[in-house]
């Protein structure tokens, strides 16, 4: 009976192996630079994304991020981003990539909360460790959009990429 279950399990797992390496999941640290009058603010946070790869070169990516900081030295501020779009990459040991994503940026400061349409232009490079893991050496993004009187200068991220 055990042999039958084992053989059946291997038989059912075979299609999963055929679809291996179709998803990349990124998680890591992110730094967001915000131009806020009268001074710039650096906000620490996190970023996560999942990418479905149609081929070795083309995929579609969903990205979320959250950054937290203080404005004027005392007031808390946070920015959350939700984006979606295509990504192009070269599959090598060091894999450079570029993406364009559309989405929503939510700014929350004392007395004001607002959602704004955003476009994110960016790219980066991953260092492949093995078939299951890469290190995102750098990802630099430039979100655009009207965040009231706040202008986002850029977002830099680093972390781990898991391949499924």
Helix-strand pattern: HEEEEEEEE
How many angstroms does the end-to-end distance come to?
31 Å
Strand line-up of the largest beta sheet:
1-2-3-4-5-6-7-8
What helical percentage do the residues reach? 10-25%
**Text of the CATH class:** Mainly Beta
Provide mean pLDDT, rounded. Answer: 85
Q: How many structurally independent domains?
A: 1
- Global morphology: elongated
Indicate the radius of gyration in whole angstroms.
19 Å
How much strand? over 45%
What tags apply to this protein structure?
mainly beta; Porin; eight-stranded antiparallel β-barrel; 1 helix; 8 strands; 71% strand
Characterise the protein shown here.
This protein is mainly beta and 164 residues long. It has a single domain (20-163), classed as Porin, CATH 2.40.160.20. Helix content is 10%, strand content 71%. The protein is built from 1 helix and 8 strands, in the order H-E-E-E-E-E-E-E-E. The chain has one helix spanning 2-18, and strands at residues 23-36, 39-53, 58-71, 75-89, 94-109, 112-128, 133-144, 151-163. An 8-stranded antiparallel beta barrel has the order 1-2-3-4-5-6-7-8. A hairpin with a 6-residue loop joins strand 7 and strand 8. The longest helix has 17 residues, at 2-18. The chain is elongated, with a radius of gyration of 19 Å. The chain starts with a helix and ends with a strand. The model is unreliable at 1-20 (pLDDT under 50).
């Amino acid at each position: 009976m055990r042999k039958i279950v084992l053989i059946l399990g291997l038989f059912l797992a075979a299609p999963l192996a055929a679809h291996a390496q179709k998803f990349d999941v990124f998680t890591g640290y992110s730094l967001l630079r915000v131009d806020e009058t009268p001074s710039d603010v650096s906000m620490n946070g996190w970023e996560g994304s999942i990418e479905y790869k149609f081929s070795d070169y083309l995929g579609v990516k969903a990205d979320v991020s959250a950054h937290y900081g203080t404005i004027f030295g005392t007031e808390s501020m946070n920015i959350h981003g939700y984006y979606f779009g295509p990504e192009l990459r070269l599959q090598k040991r060091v894999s450079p990539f570029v993406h364009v994503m559309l989405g929503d940026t939510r700014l929350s400061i004392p007395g004001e909360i607002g959602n704004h349409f955003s476009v994110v232009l960016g790219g980066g490079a991953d260092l492949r460790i093995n078939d299951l893991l890469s290190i995102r050496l750098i990802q630099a993004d430039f979100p655009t959009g009207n965040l009231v009187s706040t202008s986002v200068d850029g977002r830099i991220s680093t972390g781990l990429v898991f391949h499924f």
